[in-house]
Amino acid sequence: MTHPPYLHPAYTSTVLRAPAQELVMPKLGPDSVELTAPVFGDAEVGALDADLTRQGQGEPLGERIIVTGRVLDSRHRPVPGALVEVWQANSAGRYAHERDEHPAPLDPNFAGAGRCLTDGAGRYRFVTVKPGAYPWRNHHNAWRPAHIHFSVFGTAFTQRLVTQMYFPGDPLFPYDPIFQSIPDEQARDRLIARFDMDTTEPEWALGYQWDIVLGDTPVEE
């Protein structure tokens, strides 16, 4: 089993939200317009949407990084024109969201969200800052490893993958029940980005490579 179970008691919120009955799959398929009509246009994605460090009045605080990779289908063929969205905490481990009450500083120059369309080779690229770890009250002394949330859309809004990308060597991996809810160690490893010197730009930003393989990347439930 690659994907985490709906009910994973160590991740306490799943106890409240996991379905108690077997899933009933409807026989109705998506409308034909969802499969044939364009969902996203190039005009919808702005020039700075993929650079999270240039969306404020100045530079955000923290370690600037480049995150790039390809979106591939289950046969490892590139998926061009896919909408990829990201959201994350700032370098202090706080989200720019009213429900985040973590007593860490907000960064007025970092909103923590971006998006882009994959190119003809299925490649995406974001410039951002490395997010910080943050407490999340799931259990005593609970901290989330540094991570970036990813959302990938197919040809319709009903076709969506939501997952998380982690950073190599994080000491919090063994203590995080969300990461550990994936029973297959190799599947967990697929959620960890690879530091890449070729992506790294001299005297400017470290680079990370992370491919998203649809049908192979563990799904965030």
UniProtKB/TrEMBL annotation:
Show where the Protocatechuate 3,4-dioxygenase beta subunit N-terminal domain sits: 2-25
Q: Which GO terms describe its molecular function?
A: ferric iron binding; protocatechuate 3,4-dioxygenase activity
GO-annotated biological processes: 3,4-dihydroxybenzoate catabolic process
For whether the record's keyword set contains Oxidoreductase, the answer is: yes
**Enzyme Commission number(s) of this protein:** 1.13.11.3
Alphabetized, the UniProt keywords read: Dioxygenase, Oxidoreductase
**Superkingdom as given in the UniProt entry:** Bacteria
Q: Which residues form the Intradiol ring-cleavage dioxygenases domain?
A: 36-214
Q: Which family does it belong to?
A: Belongs to the intradiol ring-cleavage dioxygenase family.
Q: Which NCBIfam families match?
A: protocat_beta (TIGR02422)
For this entry, the protein name equals: Protocatechuate 3,4-dioxygenase subunit beta
Q: Which organism is it from?
A: Actinomadura rudentiformis
Task: Identify the taxonomic lineage of the organism of origin.
Answer: Bacteria, Bacillati, Actinomycetota, Actinomycetes, Streptosporangiales
